[in-house]
Design brief:
Length: 487
């Protein structure tokens, strides 16, 4: 059984309805809600090459087509290529004015080639000449479809521009009727051209319409080249043909023969920060330095929400009761009160808030809508069909704050209570009972839903305008995977 985090066995219901293990969830300290990758905004913070750790601004990354100019991947196995040096004897050209005495001036010079340590592919295999400098200078192939590609790009840019302007025009009319003044900022995704349009200044619209007018759409043709005559009779040498993934790694050329493989410029990696879509606060923010794996902000659910692990369980049988041993952990630096509940006993979530200000509704219309729809966990659990239920003890469990030094303690405290097996610092083991529906089909997955009510102490300094309370009672629902219903 996977022990560390049990990603497949214990899943939490996110506030958007997704089911995720605790390690894939975030916790917004401002909304006090669990968020997942689907209900947060992902923003690119910085671009860097994972191999040479070169950092670059996004404009430069765009210019370089998100590829590093000095690092390459193997076109055969996609491992990073290494630069190797050899001593090459260079024959200097014979001096034409040197008379009849043949002078051969031999010189050794360091020459460099690219080699894959994984599959032994080298740049010499495909006839790329060795280079005299260790980094850079590798011959670049030009994209044969470059001009068409640029045409398409211009065309779609122009269309997008036009659509944005039309949309904004509609919005402007709508708000002009109401006689309200709108401030338009960068945040609403307005471009300079749109701002000029609103201000009644001439726009560069003529440029975009010209791009649309001069565009020639592609024509489908029924005529294709004939296959070579020997296509069915010629022996196929698989060593000389590229695989599909090798071909698609360079979409511009799609080499069909291994002799046409070319080093692949390494794709850049990004560091991204993640933002809560409801309150706009950062949930994660990495350190800028590409070599650092640390975060400036790291609001992971793993640090804020009680963690539940399955220690063991008895086989689930229809209409019978079985034992379930769970471990609860308080990851926070404050004492936590936990109460186990049935998902249907959770208080209903507050209704969705409609955007109030004009700016907000404009934002909404510009498709920057923030989805605040909260899913009722109980509906989600019902959808997934949990056939078993965990008998939740009435008692409130108190878990001490996290103490890193206590990790080294050997002895756990045995508890005298009926359902607490042991307690140790911020951890607690529970013996619970699972009751399974008599109608559960044997062979079907056995799932049990469980809700937790827990106390949470918010350490965010409250905003001076709106003093927040520091103590909260929060709820979370989780789904335990208990194997399959036995026959
Ligand atoms: Zn939030
Ligand atoms: Zn979510
Ligand atoms: Zn690089
Ligand atoms: Zn390789």
């Amino acid at each position: 059984m996977a022990y560390l985090t049990q990603p497949d066995y214990v899943k939490y219901v996110c506030s958007c309805g997704q089911l995720k293990p605790i390690t894939s969830l975030y916790f917004c300290r401002h909304c006090l809600k669990i968020r997942c990758g689907f209900c947060i905004c992902h923003e690119v913070d910085s671009h860097h090459c994972a191999n040479c750790l070169e950092n670059m601004p996004s404009s430069e990354a765009r210019l370089k087509k998100n590829r590093c100019s000095s690092c390459f991947d193997c076109p055969s196995c996609f491992h990073t290529l290494s630069t190797r040096a050899t001593m090459a004897a260079q024959r200097q050209a014979q001096d034409p004015a040197g008379g009849d005495a043949k002078v051969e001036n031999k010189q050794t010079k360091k020459m460099y080639y690219l080699s894959c340590f994984n599959c032994r592919w080298t740049s010499r295999d495909v006839g790329i000449p060795d280079q005299s400098v260790a980094s850079g200078g590798w011959p670049e192939r030009t994209n044969p479809f470059l001009s068409r590609y640029n045409q398409l790009l211009d065309y779609y840019k122009a269309i997008a521009q036009q659509e944005k302007q039309e949309k904004l025009e509609r919005e402007r009319k709508k708000f002009a009727i109401r006689g309200k003044y709108i401030t338009l900022t960068d945040k609403t995704g307005l471009t300079g051209a749109m701002a000029r349009n609103i201000a009644g200044l001439p726009t560069s619209e003529s440029g975009s319409s010209a791009a649309i007018a001069s565009f020639t759409p592609s024509q489908a043709s029924a005529e294709v080249d004939e296959l070579p005559d020997d296509v069915y009779t010629k022996d196929v040498n698989l060593k000389q043909i590229t695989s599909m993934s090798q071909r698609l790694a360079s979409p511009e050329w799609q080499p069909s023969s291994v002799s046409r493989l070319h080093p692949l410029a390494k794709l850049l990696s990004i560091k991204r920060s993640q933002r809560c879509r409801v309150c706009d606060h950062n949930l994660t923010k990495p350190e800028y330095n590409p070599g650092s794996i640390k975060f400036k902000i790291e609001l992971l659910a793993y640090y804020h929400v009680p963690e539940v692990k399955i220690i063991s369980y008895e086989t689930v049988k229809p209409g019978e009761k079985s034992a379930l041993l769970l471990k609860l952990t308080n990851p926070t630096g404050h004492e936590m009160q936990i109460q186990l509940m049935q998902p249907e006993d959770l208080p209903p979530v507050e209704e969705r808030e409609e955007p109030k200000s004009i700016e907000k509704s404009l934002e909404k219309s510009l498709n920057l809508e923030k989805d605040t729809s909260s899913y009722r966990a109980i509906e989600r659990v019902a959808e997934l069909g949990s056939s078993s239920r965990v008998t939740a003890p009435e008692a409130t469990l108190t878990l001490a704050q996290r103490d890193d030094a206590a990790e080294y303690d050997d002895d756990a405290q045995q508890d005298t209570s009926d359902f607490i097996l042991w307690r140790k610092s911020n951890k607690l083991a529970l013996r619970l009972e699972v009751t399974t529906d008599a109608a559960a089909t044997p062979g079907a997955p056995a799932r049990a839903a469980l809700a937790l009510q827990y106390s949470y102490r918010n350490t965010v300094p409250p905003a001076p305008a709106a003093p927040q309370q520091a103590h909260h009672t929060l709820y979370t629902t989780l789904l335990l995977d208990l194997g399959v219903v036995s026959g």
